[in-house]
Design brief:
- InterPro entries: RNase_H-like, RNase_H-like_dom_plant, RNaseH-like_sf, RNaseH_domain, RNaseH_sf, RVT-Znf.
- The protein is of the alpha/beta class.
- The chain has 2 domains: 8-147, no CATH class; 162-308, 2-Layer Sandwich (Nucleotidyltransferase, domain 5).
- It contains 12 helices and 6 strands.
- It has a 6-stranded mixed β-sheet.
- Strand 2 and strand 3 (190-198) form a beta hairpin.
- Helix 1 packs across helix 6 (93-116).
- The radius of gyration is 22 Å and the shape is elongated.
- It binds zinc ion (ZN).
- Zinc ion binds at residues 39, 41-42, 44, 51, 56.
Length: 313
């Protein structure tokens, strides 16, 4: 989150959103200030952070203006940290900046209405937020170019190694999660690819961790040694590297670390989404099928062209 190119006030607000620490009516109650927890804007429900930022009527009308939002913000039960992760995963950093900018403006408007009795229309909230983010970008445009460190294309592993790219996709409405795994050698040749439906509804973090776990399973089945697992989930990579078995994915991380110990040489690394296109497509595909599919020594033929040419020289 600290790489986001947004004004400091929005950055601080984003952090407080993450920590569920903005003073909504509900949070005031939790901290011991006895006020009516019902939302004063709509009188329709307890004012939690989710309510104030996403579900309250003004807020939800503002979000409807986001035509090309990479995920569906409404109608799922993700909290703000999960939504932010999923936006980053399905969309771009720019989308996440927009998300926090608009969230900040919604909260600002809520305070204007409550404390100064002068809110503005939904369209104005949206417009003001987008302008704020764009203006800030223009002023800082030069800086960002220097901040890019990771490559945005896939590169084959060193001779004798295999790269296992993995990715997870959270369910579409009523569906299941999906996992994608692709194994390539140092000549960028396909060794295997897999689309694996992951029955049940899991969080982004769980799905990403499960994808790494399935990558390890496939490596074992293929009998490979010398493996580099690549995931675009920073949280998962950091948890595995630190052997951090706390939290909801702790049990999965534990399994992954054990697998790692059984390989002759193995490591995990974090990569950009743009260098993980094939695994991404395989994971998306897995959400649409009910049984897992595996390909050996060939590219799945339904893969779209940009993904097929990833890493091809
Ligand atoms: Zn409300």
């Amino acid at each position: 989150m600290w790489h986001l190119n947004i004004p400091a006030k929005v950055r601080i607000f984003a952090w407080r959103l993450y920590m569920d620490a903005i003073p909504t009516m509900l949070n005031l109650n939790i901290t011991g200030i006895h006020v009516n927890p019902i939302c004063l804007l709509c009188n329709d429900g307890v004012e939690s952070v989710d309510h104030a930022i996403l579900k309250c009527n003004i807020a939800s009308n503002v979000w409807k203006m986001w035509d090309d939002c990479p995920i569906s913000l409404m109608g799922n039960n993700m909290d703000i940290p999960d939504l932010a992760l999923e936006i980053m995963h399905q969309g771009t950093q720019r989308d996440l900046e927009k998300f926090f900018g608009v969230a900040w403006r919604i909260w600002y408007n809520r305070n204007q209405v409550l404390f100064e009795a002068n809110g503005i229309s939904e369209a104005h909230i949206w417009g003001a937020a987008i302008r704020m983010i764009e203006d800030f970008k223009d002023a800082n445009g030069l800086k960002i170019n220097h901040m890019r460190d990771k490559k945005d294309y896939w590169e084959p592993p060193p001779v004798g190694f295999y790269t296992i790219n993995v990715d997870g996709a959270i369910p579409l409405a009523n569906g299941h999660s999906g996992i994608g795994v692709v194994v390539r050698d140092s000549d960028s040749r396909f060794v295997a690819a897999m689309s694996l439906p992951h029955q049940g509804r899991y969080s982004v973090e769980e799905t990403e961790a499960a994808a790494v776990e399935q990558g390890c399973v496939l490596v074992k089945e293929l009998g490979l040694e010398g493996v580099i697992i690549e995931s675009d989930s920073l949280l998962t990579v950091q948890a595995v590297e630190a052997n951090d078995v706390r939290g909801v994915v702790g049990h999965i991380v534990k399994g992954i670390v054990q697998s790692f110990c059984s390989f002759q040489e193995s490591k995990i690394r974090h990569i950009n989404r743009t260098s993980n296109k094939i695994a991404h497509e395989l994971a998306q595909h897995a959400r649409r099928i009910s049984e897992s599919v595996m390909w050996r020594m060939e590219i799945p033929d339904y893969l779209p062209e940009p993904a097929r040419s990833e890493g091809a020289s």
